[in-house]
């Protein structure tokens, strides 16, 4: 039995792992601090078995108003070959549950009809320094232009500007948003940088001035922690709205908006709601609409 049968959902939903490990070697990535390496390890179970395990999970609620399913937190799900085949198999099987599904990626999105109705987060945090900071990933221009293929098969792409790296992302935000708008994106999620001692060292090695980062963190150690970045996020959201985007504060908001359901993280209660057009609080279901 894999961990899918027993893990509690995170704020973004129940995380699904078709692959663990990523070869892209992004300097800001947190998975190396979790002991996960560059070599992608494809999950052994197939999609049918995955669904069986998820249905046994005591924290799982099935259906459109149920638990969100989030793919891509511990590895790149659209790597060509065996990884992509596994991800497509997983998504095809997961769609039988009818839960909102979200995939996060830096890869080129496949033009596959299985993605119809899926929220795809396309990560872009820099235009000019991706070669240094995201050494193995496709260029941000290719990622955004390629998203047109996702639109063509009925997927719902969202620009994912996470993490906002001080001194890098914040100074490029207008360029990033302009390119994304030209590529057809209409919504964007912004998120704050998480750091450890090793992440900061990797960013410095990549040529990033780390002083603006260190100025925003109290104690740097091996434990992952968010920098103080609410001002950067607020400014980015303001600029995005001025450019006509729907600006969102978290990945779960994007999944909720894409599927027209309330955010399972109930941000409007305990965190700051960004007042997007989804109006989550008006869509909260009755108990009998959720529980089988």
The number of helical segments is 11
**Helix-strand makeup class:** alpha/beta
What's the number of extended β-strand segments?
11
Helix-strand sequence = EEEHEHEEHHEHEEHHEHEHHH
CATH class: Alpha Beta
Low-confidence residue ranges:
none
Overall outline: globular
Radius of gyration: 18 Å
CATH 2nd-level architecture: Alpha-Beta Barrel
Describe the protein.
With 292 residues, the protein is an alpha/beta fold. The protein has a single domain, classed as Alpha-Beta Barrel (TIM Barrel). It is built from eleven helices and eleven strands. The chain has helices spanning 47-56, 82-94, 130-133, 140-152, 169-183, 197-205, 211-214, 230-242, 251-259, 267-270, 287-290, and strands spanning 14-16, 19-20, 41-42, 69-71, 101-105, 119-123, 156-164, 187-192, 194-195, 225-226, 246-248. Helix 2 links the parallel strand 4 and strand 5. Helix 1 (47-56) packs across helix 2 (82-94). The radius of gyration is 18 Å and the shape is globular. 43% of the residues are buried. The model has no long low-confidence stretch (mean pLDDT 95).
List its traits.
alpha/beta, 11 helices, two-stranded antiparallel ribbon, 7-stranded parallel β-sheet, TIM Barrel
């Amino acid at each position: 039995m894999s961990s899918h049968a027993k893990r509690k959902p995170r704020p973004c939903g129940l995380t699904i792992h078709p692959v663990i490990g990523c070869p892209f070697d992004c300097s800001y990535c947190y998975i190396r601090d979790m002991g996960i390496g560059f070599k992608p390890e494809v999950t052994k179970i197939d999609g049918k078995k995955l669904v069986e395990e998820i249905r046994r999970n005591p924290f799982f609620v099935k259906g459109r108003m149920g638990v969100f399913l989030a793919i891509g937190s511990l590895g790149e799900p659209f790597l060509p070959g065996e990884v992509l085949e596994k991800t497509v198999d997983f998504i095809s099987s997961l769609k039988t549950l009818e839960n909102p599904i979200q995939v996060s990626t830096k890869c080129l999105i496949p033009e596959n009809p299985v993605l119809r109705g899926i929220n795809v987060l396309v990560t872009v945090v820099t235009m000019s320094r991706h070669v240094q900071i995201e050494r193995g990933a496709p260029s941000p221009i290719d990622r955004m232009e390629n998203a047109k293929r996702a639109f063509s098969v009925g997927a719902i792409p969202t620009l994912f500007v996470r993490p906002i790296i001080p001194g890098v992302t914040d100074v490029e935000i207008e360029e990033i948003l302009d390119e994304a708008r030209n590529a057809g994106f209409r919504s964007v999620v912004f998120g704050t940088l998480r750091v450890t001692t090793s992440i900061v060292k990797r960013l410095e090695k990549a040529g990033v001035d780390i002083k603006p980062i260190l100025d925003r963190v109290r104690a740097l150690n091996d434990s992952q922690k968010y920098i103080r970045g609410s001002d950067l996020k607020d400014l980015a959201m303001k600029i995005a709205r001025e450019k006509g985007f729907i600006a969102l504060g978290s990945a779960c908001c994007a999944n909720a908006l894409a599927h027209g359901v309330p955010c399972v993280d109930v941000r409007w209660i305990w965190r700051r709601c960004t007042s997007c057009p989804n109006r989550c609080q008006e869509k909260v279901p009755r108990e009998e609409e959720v529980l089988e």
